[in-house]
Design a protein that fits this description.
Structural class: mainly beta
Low-confidence stretches: 1-15
Strand content: 35-45%
Shape: elongated
Number of helices: 1
Distance between the termini: 96 Å
Largest sheet: 6 strands, antiparallel
């Protein structure tokens, strides 16, 4: 009973620390149309860029498995709600720890998902589960534009007349 109460308190604190949440989905790509399954439920804070994986369902990896697509899937619209990335299903095999990267837009919504894996070696006996990172998009540089070109009535470029110096006046 005490264990359940502490889990609820920890869950409540996690919700305060991470006010936004999303579900990352995976779809194996093959000759036949396959279903889109949830991969991870991720809670994140768009202002501090902190994130935590609330739940993770490791996909079944068959020998010789092909490719898969990961992203945010909207079940009501039956369409991907974010950009997706393609990866090998071997990223979820034993001996690998997946790293899910969420790309956030200016308003804090997830606009893209990518996934890669890190090989687990004998030294990583503690923290070998799935991880999540967050990246925020930034505005690109704006070009420095010169003054607009002035045209004469004939459509030719008007040449600037250099200002006369005091002696020339």
């Amino acid at each position: 009973m005490v264990l359940c109460a502490s889990a609820i308190i920890a869950r409540g604190q996690s919700d305060i620390d991470h006010p936004s949440a999303t579900i990352v989905s995976i779809q194996p790509i093959g000759a036949s149309i396959s279903s889109v399954d949830p991969l991870a439920h991720i809670q994140y804070n768009p202002t501090t860029l902190e994130a935590a994986i609330a739940s993770y369902d490791s996909p079944d990896v068959a020998p010789g498995a092909g490719l898969a697509r990961v992203g945010i899937y909207d079940k009501t619209a039956n369409a991907w709600a974010s950009s997706t990335s393609i990866l090998s299903m071997e990223n979820f095999a034993k001996g690998y720890a997946p790293v899910i990267t969420l790309s956030l837009g200016p308003d804090g919504d997830v606009i893209g998902v990518s996934c890669k894996s890190e090989k687990i070696d004998a030294g990583h006996t503690r923290d070998f589960g799935p991880k999540v990172t967050i990246r925020r998009t930034a505005d690109g540089k704006t070009p420095n534009l010169n003054r607009p070109i002035a045209l004469s009535k004939e459509g030719k470029v008007e040449e600037e007349v250099p200002e006369k110096t005091f002696i020339q006046k």
